[in-house]
Amino acid sequence: DLLTFMAPCREDIKHVRIIRDSSPNQYMALVTFRSPESIEQFYKSYNGVPFSSLEPEWCCNLVFVSRVEILSEDEGGSVAPVSHTELPTCPVCLERMDESVDGILTIMCNHAFHGNCLVKWGDISCPVCRYVQTPEPSAENHCLECMATESLWICLICGHVGCGRYLQGHAYQHYIDTHHCYSMQLGNNSVWDYVGDNFVHRILQNKADGK
């Protein structure tokens, strides 16, 4: 989604690294550009712009970074060997990754790819380790009826959060009251269809396999 958002400026981007701090459900992207002019143009075009017209409250907030501090090996960081000069290989296309030629994207699990290759991947998981690039459930999430914080399901129609059937079943009660039949479990993205009484993603997988 981030690469699609920045697609018009893709040729001006040298490297994108996804990073985070201790704030829950928040990510940052450290973007390196090929020229000062492209930085200024990117700031004018994207600062304060919503990532999606469907969620206008989530905007792109840009700040200029004067320096990047790197931890030494004694402080918990790692130091590459002085003789290490070989360019890494993109796990998707197996070509060498040269920042001077292609834009590089380093994601949360620290695997790096050509930006164009990751766009074509078409999945939210890492092509190498399958790490999912979505925020983990926030500790602030709770059932809107009984305040339970475990076994939570969110209605895909209206966003109502309720507890599962093994607690007090408020997610199911929401379906009874509203007939909103699709609900997703927070934490693993499993989608339940109350009408069919089964998981939707399992149905799709079975149809694809012909089973």
Automatic annotation (TrEMBL):
<keyword id="KW-0862">Zinc</keyword>
<protein>
    <submittedName>
        <fullName>Brca1-associated protein</fullName>
        <ecNumber>2.4.1.17</ecNumber>
    </submittedName>
</protein>
<dbReference type="GO" id="GO:0005737">
    <property type="term" value="C:cytoplasm"/>
</dbReference>
<dbReference type="GO" id="GO:0016567">
    <property type="term" value="P:protein ubiquitination"/>
</dbReference>
<dbReference type="InterPro" id="IPR035979">
    <property type="entry name" value="RBD_domain_sf"/>
</dbReference>
<feature type="domain" description="UBP-type">
    <location>
        <begin position="127"/>
        <end position="211"/>
    </location>
</feature>
<dbReference type="Pfam" id="PF02148">
    <property type="entry name" value="zf-UBP"/>
</dbReference>
<keyword id="KW-0863">Zinc-finger</keyword>
<dbReference type="InterPro" id="IPR011422">
    <property type="entry name" value="BRAP2/ETP1_RRM"/>
</dbReference>
<dbReference type="GO" id="GO:0061630">
    <property type="term" value="F:ubiquitin protein ligase activity"/>
</dbReference>
<keyword id="KW-0808">Transferase</keyword>
<dbReference type="InterPro" id="IPR001841">
    <property type="entry name" value="Znf_RING"/>
</dbReference>
<feature type="domain" description="RING-type">
    <location>
        <begin position="90"/>
        <end position="130"/>
    </location>
</feature>
<keyword id="KW-0328">Glycosyltransferase</keyword>
<keyword id="KW-0479">Metal-binding</keyword>
<dbReference type="Pfam" id="PF07576">
    <property type="entry name" value="BRAP2"/>
</dbReference>
<dbReference type="GO" id="GO:0015020">
    <property type="term" value="F:glucuronosyltransferase activity"/>
</dbReference>
<dbReference type="GO" id="GO:0008270">
    <property type="term" value="F:zinc ion binding"/>
</dbReference>
<dbReference type="Pfam" id="PF13639">
    <property type="entry name" value="zf-RING_2"/>
</dbReference>
<dbReference type="InterPro" id="IPR047243">
    <property type="entry name" value="RING-H2_BRAP2"/>
</dbReference>
<dbReference type="GO" id="GO:0003676">
    <property type="term" value="F:nucleic acid binding"/>
</dbReference>
<dbReference type="InterPro" id="IPR013083">
    <property type="entry name" value="Znf_RING/FYVE/PHD"/>
</dbReference>
<dbReference type="InterPro" id="IPR001607">
    <property type="entry name" value="Znf_UBP"/>
</dbReference>
<dbReference type="GO" id="GO:0007265">
    <property type="term" value="P:Ras protein signal transduction"/>
</dbReference>
